[in-house]
Every structure is written in C-alpha cells, then in structure tokens.
UDP-N-acetylmuramoyl-L-alanyl-D-glutamate--2,6-diaminopimelate ligase (Terribacillus halophilus), 491 residues
Amino acid sequence: MKLAVLLSALPFYKQQADHEQIDITGVTIDSREVESGNLFICIDGAVVDGHAFAKQAQDQGAAAILAERPLDVSIPVILVKDTLRALAPLANVFYNHPSKEMRVIGITGTNGKTSMTYLLESIFRANKEATGVIGTIQMKIKEETYPVKNTTPDALFLQKGFRKMVDEGVDTAVIEVSSHALDRGRVHGTDIDVAVFTNLSQDHLDYHASFEDYFHAKSLLFSQLGNTFDPEHPKYAVINADDHYAQALIKSTAQPVCTYGIDKPADIIATDIQLASNGTSFLLQTPKGEAKITSKLMGKFNVYNMLAAVGAAICSDIPFATICQALQETTGVAGRFEPVMAGQSFGVIVDYAHTPDSLENVLTTIKSFVKGKIITVVGCGGDRDKTKRPLMAGKAVQYSDTAIFTADNPRTEDPGAILEDMIRGLDSDKYVVVPDRAEAIQHAIDLAQAEDIVLIAGKGHETYQIIGTQVLDFDDRLVAAEAIKRAGLGE
Ligand SMILES: CC(=O)N[C@H]1[C@@H](OP(=O)(O)OP(=O)(O)OC[C@H]2O[C@@H](n3ccc(=O)[nH]c3=O)[C@H](O)[C@@H]2O)O[C@H](CO)[C@@H](O)[C@@H]1O[C@H](C)C(=O)N[C@@H](C)C(=O)N[C@H](CCC(=O)O)C(=O)O
Ligand SMILES: Nc1ncnc2c1ncn2[C@@H]1O[C@H](COP(=O)(O)OP(=O)(O)OP(=O)(O)O)[C@@H](O)[C@H]1O
Ligand SMILES: N[C@H](CCC[C@H](N)C(=O)O)C(=O)O
Ligand SMILES: [Mg+2]
C-alpha cells in the first residue's frame, strides 16, 4: 500500500520530506518485528519509549517511521501529536476495514466477558456460521488458536486478526473489550454490530484513576456505537438491567437497547431459576419466544451470561430454537468453574475469579449445593489493583470454612507484601497463609474430606505463575491432580 493512502487516515500529520510514493509492506509497533518496507510506529509506552528503537527499525529495513518528534534517521519520518491515537485509524486503513465485512459482537464488563464469548461462539456455530473469538485465553479462528498478549490486543493485532478472519470466511467475530482497550482506543474504527454489557464491580483501580473513570471507559463501547440509525445495518446495545450502571449506559448510546435481567423488568428475563450441583435450569422469556433451558453451566452468574448471550443472538437475528439448542449443549470454558477429577472423594473446582464480586459469586454458588466444608485457595495478582486485595480476602473468609491465602502472579511485587495487603483487618484465626501456591493447594487437598469442596481461585486457564519477570510453568488443574495423587486420595 502507498504511504499516501495509509496517511489518508491521519489528516493532521507533518512530514520531514515528500515521500508519499513509498510502498509500505506492513505496519508494526515493535522494532523487533520490522521487516523490509514496513512502517514502524514509535509508541511512548508504560515501560519503554518506542522512539528509542527508530534506528534499529531503520537497520532492519523500515521504509518510514511514524513518530511524535523528529528523529535522527535517514528514512522518512511522519510526525503526529499522538502515535497511540494514530494506530487504530492506520490499522483500519492498512487492513481495509475488515470489521465491515463480518458481524462483530463486542463484550465489556468486569466479569463474564470470556465466558460469554464462548457461549456466543456456540450459538453462532449452532446457526452454522464460521466464528472468530478474541479474548483473554486466545484468538480463535474457526478451529485454529493463536496466542494473545492482551484480553483486547492493540489495534494492529486486532485489525490484522479481523482481516485473517474475513479471508478465512468467518461470519461472526466475538471479542472481549477491556476497559484498558477502550481507554487506549484499541477498538477505534472497529465496526461493532452488537455491544454487550455484563456488569460493573471493582477491578483495575491500579490503571483507572477512580471507579467513575473505570465506568466511563466501559461506557465508550456504547457511545461509540454511533449516532445515526441505519435500518440496513442496525446496531444494538445489550445491557444488564439489574446492574447499578444500566441506566447510565442506556443513556450513553443512541442505538436501540435490548435489556436482560432477573430482578428488574427487562426484554429478556429468566424465571423459575433452579441452581443445582450439576447445572442450572430456568424459564427463558424473550420477545421471540419462551423455553425451559437446562444448562450444564453453574451458578446464577451464568444465568446472567446466558441471558446476555440470548440478547446478542436475538439482535443478530439467530432463530430462537437455535439459541436454545446451543444453550442446552454448551459445556463451559476452560478454567471457569472447571472441575478437577482425579478420583478423589471430594470436589475440586478451578475458577478464574480474581475480583471480589466474582469470588463472591463462585463461593455462593458452591455454598448453595455443598454438603461438606468449603476450602478456598486464593491469592491476588502483583502489579494490579491493590485495593481489591482485602476485599477478595474478606469474601474468601466470609464464605469458606477454611481460607488459604497464597501467591497469584506476584510479578514484580514482594509476594509477602501482597499477602499483607490481603489480610489487613482480618482476624488471624480466620485464614492460613501458605505463600507457595503448590504447597497451598497441597494443604487444601490434605485437609479435604468426602463431600467437601476445594475452590482454587484466581488463575483459571492460566498455565503459568509470573514471579518477578519470569514466567514459570504452573497450572492449578495439574497441580491439584498431582496433590491428590501425592496424598494417595486419587484413583
Ligand atoms: C499499559 C498497557 O496497556 N500496555 C500495553 C502497551 O504496552 P506499552 O505501550 O506500555 O509497551 P512498552 O513495553 O512500554 O513499549 C513501548 C513500545 O516500544 C516498543 N518496543 C519495545 C521494545 C523493543 O525492543 N522494541 C520496541 O519497538 C513496543 O512494541 C511498544 O510499541 O502495548 C502492548 C502492545 O499492545 C500491550 O501488550 C501492553 O499491555 C500490557 C502487557 C498490559 O499489562 N496491559 C494491561 C494493563 C491490559 O491492557 N489489560 C487488559 C486486561 C483487562 C482485563 O482484565 O480484562 C487487556 O486488555 O489485556
Ligand atoms: N456474569 C458474571 N458475573 C459475575 N461473575 C462472573 C460472571 N461470569 C463469570 N463470573 C466469574 O468471573 C470469573 C471470570 O470470568 P470471565 O473470565 O468470563 O470474566 P472476564 O470478564 O473475561 O475476566 P477478565 O477481565 O479477566 O478478562 C469466572 O471464573 C467466574 O468466577
Ligand atoms: N486480566 C486480569 C487477569 C488477572 C488474573 C490473575 N491471575 C492475576 O494475575 O492477577 C488482569 O490482568 O488483571
Ligand atoms: Mg476475559
């Protein structure tokens, strides 16, 4: 693509010389990935300043550089005020607006985004569509999976991924949209057809200055759905009517709103909810029909996820019977309420709950059916929201018979200091601290008796433990199975 065409996305750039006829073979924000003929974009990041790598980019064959200040290089430099802001428009032009060529569902909210992406994948697949998913676990295009660094990747990765999806015939892409992504404009230019809100509770107050700032970031998904209504390409907002922030979000969008809920009046509701130890059933009532749903998914929070998925599917014109069939068949997501079955006489559940609200949801779900005691192993991530630590520890103590506090990705923080934050204000007879996560899991397994449930919370699908800057192999599910074997309790 000609540099001039690419720069049409940026009306206010300055250039050091007239080099618009240059052919650009690719665009990258990482000097280590620069290939011959690429445009290298310098981002002044949280860790390093990408401008420092301009020379390296040139040496690797970059054809031009987009930067915020003049640079001492011999290739053309295009100057803009804010390179991070320029990224999404450039990515959209370079990959030729792929999101316009398929249906895109964007999901935001504190908890439930990943769970919902896979629920929607099942629904769209039941409708015989080819699907793509981008989120915390991976990018998935039909059956192929690709690693991702972020829940919502940067605009270049995102638009490149969308283009690949379109090229491979994907009909519907379902993406998680994190508050960080909204704050940093990662989804600018993405033509989102249905925006879904799950819920809002405390998380990420390390990144966002206040809870209001966090809410405001989430609301951007809805305000950015556009101000004009096109009956040929309608856009919808799907909003949890029971959430405290529902009304504010409804006001933030100019597009038609579909609400769902259990407690408040809504377009899509669940009644007669039965929560059991092997799943959930409820009566689904929607403008398109009613049906009794029996699902393998556990807990009231998953009823909310199913209602939200129904809303998004109805807004996408999926037949009601297809939606119901998919809900009945779906089996859940790796690391979300995932049982570990190694022949032991008690239950072991691995769950990604890493916020006070999700921990409470998971523990109250377990409490609703457990016959014995609840033993919870949980830690809090390092270099993340410190204020959620005592709240998570409080929930663990409130709903467990034994709470074992341990490490969860301490990253560059002192693991002991994280544990200190967790136990602040708690009676010392209410918990035990076992800093090493494998030992904590072993301790929980050794304590467990028949009919008890061990909840191992916080890491879910993760297959690593980040200590300092080292990423070490660690998988709660495998460690729990080994602990059961070591205790001689398995098959
Ligand atoms: C604060 C933040 O969002 N940072 C993101 C950002 O990194 P950054 O700009 O700070 O990067 P940096 O390391 O300082 O480097 C600056 C620039 O120099 C470049 N560079 C660097 C080294 C080099 O040798 N050459 C080079 O060119 C880098 O490619 C980058 O362009 O851009 C990177 C590439 O897109 C992201 O991976 C990175 O996410 C980091 C890992 C992160 O932790 N982000 C969190 C806050 C986040 O976004 N989380 C949400 C999850 C929320 C949820 O729980 O749902 C998410 O969406 O993932
Ligand atoms: N609708 C919901 N409301 C509250 N808690 C939920 C809901 N759905 C799932 N959870 C809980 O939150 C945990 C994380 O769920 P999930 O991974 O789907 O959320 P997420 O929004 O993708 O999280 P992240 O911000 O890390 O990407 C689950 O393991 C479960 O404990
Ligand atoms: N997306 C979340 C995941 C948290 C998972 C938990 N295991 C941790 O490391 O804190 C975050 O980065 O805040
Ligand atoms: Mg997620």
Summary: The pocket of magnesium ion (ligand 4) is lined by residues 113-114, 135-136, 151, 176 (CB under 6 Å). The chain has a mean pLDDT of 95. The radius of gyration is 24 Å.
